[in-house]
Every structure is written in structure tokens, then in C-alpha cells.
Amino acid sequence: MENKSKNTRYLIVSLIFVLILCIFVFTFQAVHMREKSAETISDIGGIYMSGMGDHVAEHFGTTIGLRLSQVGDLVESVPPGNVGNADVMRVNLSHNGRMREFTSLALVAEDGTYEMIYGNDADPADPETFMRSLRSGHSKIAAATDRLGDTMILMGMPAVYPMKDGGESIALVAGLPVSYIGETLALNISDETMEYYMILKNGDFIFRGDGLDGGNYFDRVRKRYDSVLGMKKETFIQELQVAMEVNEEYDIEFTLDGERRHMYCTRLPNSEWYLLVGMSYNLMDETIDHFGDQWTFTALADCALIVLALLLVFAGYFRLMRQQMHSLDEARKAAERASKAKSEFLSNMSHDIRTPMNGIVGMTTIAISNIDDTQQVQHCLKKIAFSSGHLLGMINDIMDMSKIENGELILNVEQLSLHDVMLNIVGIMRHQVKEKRQKLDVYVRDVTVENVCGDSVRINQILLNLLSNAVKFTQEEGRIQLVLQEEPSPKGDAFIRVHLRVKDNGVGMPRELKERIFESFIREDHSRVEKSAGAGLGLTITKYIVEAMGGNIKVESEPGRGSAFHVTVDLEKAMAQEREMELPDWDLLVVDDDEIHCENDIAALRAIGIKADWALNGKRALQEVQKRLEKGENYFAILLDYDMPGMNGIETAREIRKLCGDKTPFLLLAAFDWNEVEEEAKAVGIYGFLAKPLFKSTLFYGLKPLAATKEAETTTQADVVMQFAGKRALLAEDNELNWEIASELISDLGIELDWAENGKICVDMFEQSPLHYYDVILMDLRMPVMTGYEAARAIRDLDRADADTIPIIAMSADAYRDDVQKCLDCGMNAHVPKPIDMQEVIRLLEKYLRP
Element (H or E) spanning 817, and its range? Predict the structure, then answer.
């Protein structure tokens, strides 16, 4: 209770403090903003009036300059030096002056005498200044008053014309009414906040924006103002006169009758006139005051809202605390469940890891005990290899999951062939499918682009995970389908959308498991699948890889009816595509018990220019051949599926041979190695073998040799040995067992192998060897004294001709993408992960050890 009371007091004091702080802050801000607004208006007003004055002065100068030029045009229209008749001269000047809308026109003599051509004569306000400019040969404007008392503008232009009294003029003077200034410069406006005047130095008004005539500005100040900005009115007048005298701009802000005003003065060009612009801030000050009142009211309202909001926040604080306590309790329970799940996972993994380890250890013991029994040893080694592969797969899954959780799983995008991917995955899965006597159907539909860009290892991993699960959770003699299909990609013509579907008729999944199937460590614990061990990470990894590729994966499943996984991913088309594939329009017969296979094969054959018929069994194939023979025709070649019910492909070939003899070549279609049936197939005259699934390229390159009647040759182990005979390799390996294994495997290829126990010895042996003595260096990475990375750099830095050219291939269990890249950065050419894949080793040796 005491703690609760303290909390309540703390909240009340906090609310009061926040309330006072808000009132103070918002009030201070309102007052401050009002003051700043007034200052801003003054600054803006000064800038505005200065700009307005300069603009009006510039406009005045332009207008007066234009009018002066018109007076000059009058002089040019009647040249002073070419006057024949004085009366005609006056008529022409009068006519031209009226056309230019001058109200008067006169000639001025040296003594200031005016001879009017037309209009009323006028007396300049400052005749001495006006005449002095004209006598000196300069044009000039001046204010004047005509005999009717109206103010005029006189514009004088030096010109020598004969006058009636026999003398000569010194200038031509044109007159305009002062109202012209207002009409032209738009000074006579109705804005109550602005005042515009034109005055002389003595203060006499030339023009008044208020529409009144005459008067003196200085007298107006003396009558109207008591003081200006604390100055006596005479002092203000003197300051203004001084500014006029030295031709400086004058700017001042003052208060009149409780009203803030701003005045600006500047000289007008081509004249002795001055522009006065005055502006009242009264309306703006009223607006600012009104805005300030509104701001204060808004500030107080905001304070009230903030206080109300704080009350609501503090009221919800306790409810939030209760929710947080509930969430913490749920999190604790979730953590306990996660801990339990991890404990169960570790327990399961302990069992799952021990199972293959027990097989490895047990079979090793048996093999040692029966070392003289070759058949028994081979059996044990097969079991060891199987258990090792299973264990390695589990370790890879766990390592991949670790990299996923750490954000370190990176895709290695390179050019790949979908044809090779499918063939490899079928080859990998064939043994598992065969053990359970299951049927694996592989379909290829609408595949127009075989070469794409992607991570071939990860695509293989996706298919391997899905197919392994399908085999694992499908009963013996069950059926599994793998479908590869293409369609245009929404990403554009540079991409192709690939669909991968894996479907089985196995045990299926209940809805609860299906919703969680992509979570980590999830696997069905049921008597139906108790023999199917695994880490429960395969599908989690698969989903992550698919999404990393920008695709998606879906699953449909029902208990007892099997599961169907659908992967969709957009892959970029490879820059180097297969060349145009086209063969002669042969007539072929395709024999396969699967109608879908037949349709796909016929479509692929048609794409390369071949016409084909199809039959669903051997008996039907015999009938089709018989029909052809009766017509006196025959098929150019026949494609026979090996695995057909009733009569398999070889038996069908044997019967067809009886009908058509040895002229028609047969090609066997199967999803297994040709070596298994090669002898039996050749005995009945089968020409060759095409591996399923059949791509367009498979058919093209498989049938192309028929045009030249050449048989494909198969590379044998003897060919490999012959290829590498006489080559010498240097192996850097610190582990004696690994050296023994590598020595045995690589020596079988016909390569002579030298051993270096660490990187330093490897560098020394290479440096001391004759030039081009070694053809390749096989480098372990983790070694004492000097690592493989350091050894590779050291070899590349040696001053000998073959240091830069000798191939260096890394052989290490460090198989992450970063490890591979580090090897390449150190100057190595390639990387082979341990356990050693001899097919990959042979491929790399063939690449770098060319004759």
C-alpha cells in the first residue's frame, strides 16, 4: 500500500508539474512568436518598400527616358540645321508633338524666354536648375505650373531653331500633365495601407497618390506629426533633406496616432524629384494580435489536451503493466517449451547420430575381422558408405540451419543446366527408390530454356530434400512424381518461371503438422514413420533457400493420401543458350507405357523437326511397325522405354527385330545407368541409350549421331588412367590418414603423388623442384607451421616461370562459400570439399591437366 501511495503521489506531482510546464512553455512561445512576428513584418516591410521604391524609380526612369527619346524624335523629324520655312517648321513640330500626345510644345531661348508652338506656357518650379542643364546641352525634366495653375511636367531637349524674334532657341520643351505619372506608373491606387508621393527638395508635391493637388510635404509633417521615432519633427525633416541632398535612400519606421508606419524615400532618375512611399502596419498588427490571441487560446487548449492525454496514458499504464506481466508469463512458458523442444531434439539427434555411427563402427569391426573375405569386406564398406552419407547429410542440415539463423547462407549464382540438374537428382535418388521398390516418374513439360543462372547446389538440395521425404514417407511399391515445367516469367523476357512439383501417395500429413511443417525441428512422431530418422530441418532449409531465390513453396497433404509440394522460382536465362537444335524430318516411334511421357517426348521431338508416333506397350509397338512395313515404309528409329509391364524394352526390341531386321536403330530409354543392361541390350541390337527425363537437348544430341551412323564411345577407367599417365602432383596434407586415402584414390588415376606434411614443406618442395616438375598442387587448408592459404600466396610469389601457372586445387572440409572465395583470393584455382568426390576431382584434373 505504501508503494502504491508513493506511486500515486508521484503521478499527481508529475501531472501538476507537466501542466505548469506546458502552460509556461506555450504562453512564452505565444508572446515570443508575437514579438518575432512584429519584427518579421518590419523586416519584410522594409525589404518590400525598398523593392517597391526601386521598382517604381526604375519604371519612372524608363518611362521618362522613353518620353525624352520621343522629344528627341521630334527634333530629328525636323532637323534644326535644315529649316527652310519657320512657319512650316512650327506646323511640323506641332503636328508631330500632338501625335505623341504632348499637351504643349515650346522653344526656349538662351535667356529663358519661351515661344509657345501650341498649348499653355508654364513656369518651372526650379527654373535655374532647368535652364542650367539646357544651356550645358543636356536633356532635362522639370515640374512646372501653367497659367491655369495646373502642375505639368516639362521635358527639355537641346535644339537650335529660329525664333520669331529673329533669335535662336537652345532647346525644344514638351509638356505633359502630371496625371500622366499616375496613369503610367500606376501610383494612384486604392490600397489604404500605402501612400505614394513625388516631391521636390523643398518638399513641394509634384504628385500625390491620395488624389489631392498641391501642398508641401514638410508643412504636412509639421501640422500632422508631434514627433517621429522620438525625434522632433524638424530633426526628421532635416535628416530627410540631408539624405536628398547627398542622393541617399532614407528608410524609417515610426508610430503615428498609435499606428506603426514605415516610410521610404529615394531619388527618381533624370530629375530633381524624390519618391516617398509610406505603408501602415495597422492592419497587419491587428492580424498578428488576433493570431497571437488565437495562439494563446490554442496553447491553453493544447495544454488541456496534453494533460488529458497524460491522464489517459497513466490510466492505461497499469493495464499495460498487467498485459506485460501476462506477456512475460507467456514468454516464459514459450521459452520452457522451446527448451523442452531443444532437449527432445538433442535427445533425438543423439539417437539419430549414434545409429549411423554404430553402423560405421560395427561394420568396420566386421570388415577387420573378415579381412580375407573380399565379398564380406565389400558388403561392410557399402554399409559404411551408406551410414557415412546419412551422417554427413544430418551434419550438413544442422550446419545449414546454423548459417540460416546467422544470416550467412549465401547463394552462389552461376550458369547451370536444368537437364543436368534433373539427371543428377534422378541418379542420386535411384538407389533409394529401388530399395523400396517404388516408382519414380519424372516429367518435363514445356521446357524451352535449359541453361539458366542459379545456385545449382541449392537447387539440387531443394529437390533432394523433397524427394528424400517423399521416398521416406511413402510405403514400399508406392509412386512418386517429379515434374519440371516452365512458363514465361512476370519479371520479363530475361527470366523464365520454373515450377518444380514433387508428389507422392504416401502417409500424408494431418492439418496440424502441415501448418507447422516448415518450422525447425518438426518431424512426425508416429509409428508409420518411426524408422525414418532425420533432424527435422530439411524442409525449413528448403523453404529458406526457395525464398532466398525469390520464389515460394506450397504444400498440400491429406493423411493416407500423400503429399504434394510445389516450388515456384524465377530464374534468369543464361547468356549462352543452346544453339538452334534441328534434325531431319525423320519418322520415329516412341514406346512408353506412360502416356504423359509419350506426349512430352512427341512435343520435344517435334521441336527439333522430327515426326513421331507413339505406343503405350510392346504389343501396340509391334502393330505400328507391322502397319508401316505393310505400306512399304519403316521407322527411321525407335525409342523404347525399358521399364514397361508385360514386355519390357529389350523384349520389345527383340520382337521388332524379327519384323524389320537390323536396319532400324533402337534407342533404350531409362532412368538408370546404361551399364546395368548394356550387354543384354546390345545382344538384341539396341544402338544406344537415352537417360530419362528426356529434354529437347537429350533427344537432339542422342539422335544426332544417327545421321552419321556413329556410335557414342564411353570413357572407361583405362581411358582416365591413360589421360593422366606421367603426370605428377604435390599433395600438402598434415593428416596421415587423409594422405593415405588421397594417395590411394589419386594414384589409381595414374598420377605420381608426392607428400608434403604442411604448407611450409610444400612451398620448399615446389621451390627446390625442377621447372615444370609438378603438374598440379593439391592443398589442404588447415595445417601447422603454414596454412594452405599462406602456402598458396607464397608459391604465387616465387620467382620462377611456373609459379603463376601451376594449378593449385584446395582439398578441405572448410566448404563454405566464404572459404571457397578465400581460396580463390589466395591464388588457388578451385576447391574440392572433403569427403573427396572423385568425380569432381577427375573433372578438375581434366580441366587443368590438359595435354
Answer: helix 817-825
